[in-house]
Every structure is written in C-alpha cells, then in structure tokens.
Amino acid sequence: MHKYFDINEEGFSVRCKLYCDDPRGIRRVIVFGHGFGGHMDNKAAERFAVKALAKYRHLGIVTFNWPCHGSDARNKLVLADCDTYLRLVNAYCREQLGAETLYAYATSFGAYIFLKYMHEHGTPFKRTVLRCPAIPLYEVFTHSIIGKEELEKLAKGKPVLAGFDRKVRITQDLLEEIREADVTQWDFLDLSEDILIQHGTKDEIVPAEGIRRFADDNLIELEEIEGADHRFQDPKKMDYAISEILKFLDL
Questions:
Q1: Which terminus of the chain has fewer CB atoms gathered within 10 Å of its CB, N or C?
Q2: Tell me: the pLDDT tens digits for 78-110?
Q3: Cα–Cα distance for residue pair 231/35, rounded to 1 Å
Q4: Are strands 221-225 and 195-200 parallel, antiparallel or unpaired?
C-alpha cells in the first residue's frame, strides 16, 4: 500500500509518499531521493518498494519531491532548501513514523544531495546506496543537462529551464553554489564501509570514470553494472540492482 502526506514545517511543505504494509508497524525506513527533474512517484522507487516490502516486514519506504520538482510549490532551486527537505523528512520518519533505523537510497542528483548532507551533518543512515550518483554535479549540469545556448544565457544573467519530467528553473547563482559544493573534494573515508555505489557502464549522463575515481579515493564499494544506462531502463538490470541493494542494506 502507499499513501501521500505533506510535512509542513518551518515555512516549507514537503510532498511525500510512503510505501508500507502497515504504518503502525514500521521499525525501519528507507529514505529514497530521486534525481534531477524527477519526482516522488518515479517508477524506480515504486519497483524497489514492491520488491523490498515483499521480502521484509516492519519496513517503510519514503519518497519525496525535492524543491521545484514534481508537485512541489517552490520555483527557485537552492541547495540549502534541498538540505532542509532531507532533514525534515529524516525527522518525520523518526518522530512520526516511529522508525528506529534509517537507511538511504538515492539516485543521480539525489545522491549528490545525500552526500552533501552527510558531509555537512554526519550521517543519520545505517547504510546508504547511491545509484548513478551525479557526484561531479557541476560538470554534469554544464556538459549533459544544460545545452550550449542555455549556458550562454546563464552567463548573461538569464535563467533557463532544464530537466526531464518537470522543467526546473536554473540560475547562474545555483551553478556557482554547485561549483563550490564539490563533493569530489570531500573525504568520506569514515563512512565508506556503509556506502555502496552502483553505476552503469553505459551511463550517458554521468561518466563512469569520475565515479571510479571517487570510489577509489574514498575506499567505497563500487558495483559497475554492465550495459546499464543512467536510468537503468532495462528491467532485468534494474531488478539485479535492487537485489544487490537489498543484500547490502541488510535489513
């Protein structure tokens, strides 16, 4: 089963979705962070939730919209707001859902935000899985997501729209924020044993080479999945990835 709810705190309204068998019996929660231009109803999260709930009891999976994504009401994407959304979701899972243990599963842009959060606040998660993480986010934005003409507009101080399921307003200020918050320059060695990175060898958005270097520098386990693209659109590859995620999370 699933249900929608909002977290209305500190002037924000975070749109969320909970997958579970029984909300009253939740002991563990997996917080799922979607990618840039996506939303909480994405098929990857739903497929993961179905398989996880079929195997484990007392489990909840919470997805939510990042600022300016899906049905979120905000219209200016700011990294600090992403940080706040994740903090509010984590707190809700513990205080309102009664989760004794939190786990993390995030993809692409969501994986970048989770890493940034863990660097700045420490990790609230027992274990973390990052699939196709957009770790070199500035390069991903300027080489894969935003075209040449849009970059020229940004340089002139004009905002542009970019994204997939919903177009997100991008500003030069946001790009500068991302350039300064360079995850590749931070040390995650203390957390490395509890992080798994999955990456497709045919990822067309985030080149695998940079992910290998980041994982190697931080002694993080990297599982490369042969032939998988950024969204893992092949159902067999996605199902394999999910089975490996569940093994690693050790629920």
A1: N
A2: 999 999 999 999 999 999 999 999 999 999 999
A3: 9
A4: parallel
**Exposed, middle or buried, 29 (CB in 10 Å: 0-12/13-18/19+)?**
buried
Report the alpha-carbon distance of residue 197 to residue 232 in Å, rounded.
14
Instruction: Measure the CA–CA gap between 23 and 178, rounded to whole angstroms.
Output: 37
Q: Tokens for 206, please give them.
A: 């985030």
**Predicted TM-score (pTM) of this structure:** 0.96
Residue 164: pLDDT over 80:
no
Helix axes 172-180, 79-95, angle to 10 degrees: 70
- Check if the beta carbon of residue 17 is closer than 8 Å to that of residue 4: yes
> CA angle, 205 as apex, 179 and 132 as ends, to 5°?
85
Burial track 73-95 (b if 16+ CB lie within 10 A, e otherwise): ebeebebebbbbbbbbbbebbee
Angle at 63 between CA 61 and CA 67, to 5 degrees: 160
pLDDT of 165 above 80: no
Helices assigned H by DSSP within 56-194: 79-95, 108-121, 137-140, 148-155, 172-180
pLDDT tens column, 24-59: 999 999 999 999 999 999 999 999 999 999 999 999
Q: Can you tell me whether residue 111 is helix, strand or coil?
A: helix
Sorted by sequence, the CB contacts under 8 Å of residue 125 that are 6+ apart come out as 31, 102, 103, 104, 118, 194
SS3 at position 41:
coil
